[in-house]
Amino acid sequence: xxxxxxxxxxxxxxxxxxxxxxxxxxxxxxxxxxxxxxxxxxxxxxxxxxxxxxxxxxxxxxxxxxxxxxxxxxxxxxxxxxxxxxxxxxxxxxxxxxxxxxxxxxxxxxxxxxxxxxxxxxxxxxxxxxxxxxxxxxxxxxxxxxxxxxxxxxxxxxxxxxxxxxxxxxxxxxxxxxxxxxxxxxxxxxxxxxxxxxxxxxxxxxxxxxxxxxxxxxxxxxxxxxxxxxxxxxxxxxxxxxxxxxxxxxxxxxxxxxxxxxxxxxxxxxxxxxxxxxxxxxxxxxxxxxxxxxxxxxxxxxxxxxxxxxxxxxxxxxxxxxxxxxxxxxxxxxxxxxxxxxxxxxx
Length: 347
Ligand code: NAD
Ligand code: TYD
What we know:
CATH architecture of the largest domain: 3-Layer(aba) Sandwich
Bound molecules: nicotinamide-adenine-dinucleotide, thymidine-5'-diphosphate
Strand content: 15-25%
Largest sheet: 7 strands, parallel
């Protein structure tokens, strides 16, 4: 299979490319189109550089020329499958500056779809990686794929735009589009601005863990390998023009997962620092995953084991995250200003 993976220098994309090469070996060809934003780290896939079935291309999914080049594939023969992971992904950053989110998460998807039209009907799949956040928050019960979207922050609103644009191109032009909506991923190579890697690396350094609001917001945690396996499954067995939820079935309050991280890193609870809540902070995400199960896929990684493995990975790969944390000084200063000092809700 010939893949075009976008955003493959980021967290999930790099795990997906590693998954594909592990499973299919030399039968897989992968072009990795990535802009290398602050979140893109080409070295995440250093082990594949120079191989004849892998091509890294630095480029922007919102740039038609970059995209046209990427669709040529590794050797000019084209691609069978597009998996679009490329996105601006952090809610807190979308509160700081939303324009790049629209540019990449909406317009970038459009550019990828327009190029896909030129390659139809040879293209087998176009997988748009969306997120559970497009549904908005739910106090009880779980969202199904047919539920209306109600994004409540600039990140999720832009993801909803890309999600619906991909769906629309499937309906309108018959492109082989599948949209996936996954819950919160965790695992190796996650940029240390998201909850789990931030708290693990802060704990290792005995730094405070800034827990937003009352710490009772609920997220459903999905191990990244399960997400990759689900996407791989849908490429083979999904139905075009359908949306699939991908959930881990591990709902936890933030304070619960924080306690587990402190246990696993052997650090005291006094490191927890309650800070002002995130603006527009979604209370709870929850997915009904029956549709994917009916198709024949179930996530099977044990959550506790996966969390232990993840913490172990950060303990074993200090140079990786220390280099990133040192580089992101501007962002850290902004977070400190917005979440560090304030004690009351910002709105
Ligand atoms: P990430 O921030 O770690 O990586 C994003 C990657 O996209 C980076 O390598 C970055 O350089 C690249 N990128 C950004 N803008 C680009 C552009 N214009 N052109 C080309 N490349 C660009 O993100 P992630 O956590 O790996 O998320 C990957 C995808 O999965 C995103 O679409 C995200 O919305 C979705 N998702 C993430 C989660 C999660 O918990 N992390 C959950 C559900 C869905
Ligand atoms: P995050 O990893 O940013 O993912 P998302 O907002 O996309 O779900 O945050 C997960 C949860 O953790 C969310 O409820 C916000 C909370 N959180 C904190 O309490 N402190 C933090 O420093 C961060 C980054 C997140």
